[in-house]
Write a structure and sequence with these properties.
The protein has about 280 residues and is mainly α. The chain is built from eleven helices and no strands.
């Protein structure tokens, strides 16, 4: 997943997004109507024709949703074979995954599973669905948070290098500055510039948490004048840039790391569902 940031906080809806959302809405209504008919005509259990149909549809959607990851790793081959663009597969992965979760619940009759394999399949499916929704929320919110008030646009992989550059600039400014500047650098700025840092405060309010930490610079600058005030202002700019890089370092890390919660478990889920299908067909 790319972590380059600098996206606008306000996004236009992509072509095709409304079509996929409408298709999902139609499919959801059909499934709910089918479930209601099932309850009126028969029992909702895994072993009857209704339950088998739900399970078959759920497995089909799961395989299709899982193909999104395969398609990403075989992009050139997929384009050459005319298998559709990545954006379309992303929509299918999202909406197909949600429908899979609903069909799985319908397959079990909205009851808790029985047996070890059933529990593992149920728990992994719920985990996969929840982490998928978490990833969707992060991808919608984080670009907006980073683009709403931060002055920097920076790639995640370059942050340690850029922090080192800021540290050198701050040290040079401190060495040539007056006592208030040197003291401010040693007490407040230098420790912050030691390395990139992640903080949960940036999930709550990226810009507000930065502004609250700059008040000391404003106060000191109001007490000083001339060259000293200009040095404090320059040091404040370096400090602000570091805090904004930390915001990127935190939020872009989250945007990357949620995949480790989602992808490995989804692969295990595919394997367990395959075992489940094989067991059902064999017995």
């Amino acid at each position: 997943m790319s972590a380059a940031v600098g996206m606008s906080g306000r996004r236009r809806e992509r072509p095709g997004a409304r079509l996929w959302r409408n298709l999902f809405s139609v499919a959801l209504v059909i499934l709910l109507a089918t479930g209601l008919a099932n309850l009126l005509l028969s029992e909702m259990v895994p072993g009857n024709i209704w339950g088998i149909a739900y399970g078959t549809a759920a497995a089909t959607l799961m395989i299709g949703a899982a193909f999104f990851g395969v398609r990403r790793r075989m992009m050139h081959s997929a384009l050459r074979l005319g298998l559709g663009g990545s954006r379309q597969w992303l929509y299918f992965h999202l909406y197909g995954g949600l429908l899979f979760l609903l069909l799985m619940f319908m397959h079990t009759g909205f009851r808790l599973p029985e047996g070890v394999l059933g529990w593992w399949m149920w728990l992994l499916a719920v985990w996969t669905g929840l982490t998928g929704l978490l990833g969707l929320a992060l991808q919608q919110w984080i670009p907006k948070a980073l683009g709403s008030g931060l002055g920097l646009e920076v790639h995640y992989d370059r942050i340690p290098e850029l922090v080192a550059e800021l540290r050198d600039r701050a040290e040079e400014l401190s060495e040539g500055g007056h006592d208030p500047v040197r003291q401010l650098h040693a007490r407040k700025v230098a420790p912050e510039l030691a390395a990139p840092r992640r903080s949960w405060r940036y999930f709550i309010d990226p810009t507000g948490s930065i502004h609250s930490r700059l008040r000391e610079f404003d106060y000191l600058r109001s007490l000083l004048g001339g060259e000293e005030a200009r040095d404090v202002e320059a040091l404040e700019g370096i400090y602000r840039a570091k805090l904004e890089m930390d915001a990127h370092y935190t939020l872009q890390w989250a945007l990357r790391s949620w995949l480790y919660l989602h992808v490995p478990i989804s692969l295990v889920l595919v394997a367990i569902v395959a075992v489940h299908i094989g067991t059902v067909l064999y017995y």
